[in-house]
């Protein structure tokens, strides 16, 4: 059938781990950058500083949204993996039952 793809349980597990790793690396880099920014802009005052800090806060909120989206994707992959495993087990059980019925 057109539009279908195949995936294994191991591939789903790897994808979940890769998403988790990438999200952790992104969050670590954001923390590092925020630390550098605080050192540089710590003593900055005035309207330009206020505008910059508002922009930085908005950027941090967007970065948090991105992290949340990656976490949602990871959870969806984990759910798919769980459903895949349950389906495989059910199908294996049904095939075993059919085979035992035919003895």
TrEMBL record:
Pfam families: WXG100
Compositionally biased region (Polar residues): 80-95
Protein name per the record: ESAT-6-like protein
Protein family per UniProt: Belongs to the WXG100 family.
Region (Disordered): 80-103
InterPro entries, alphabetized: ESAT-6-like_sf (IPR036689), T7SS_ESAT-6-like (IPR010310)
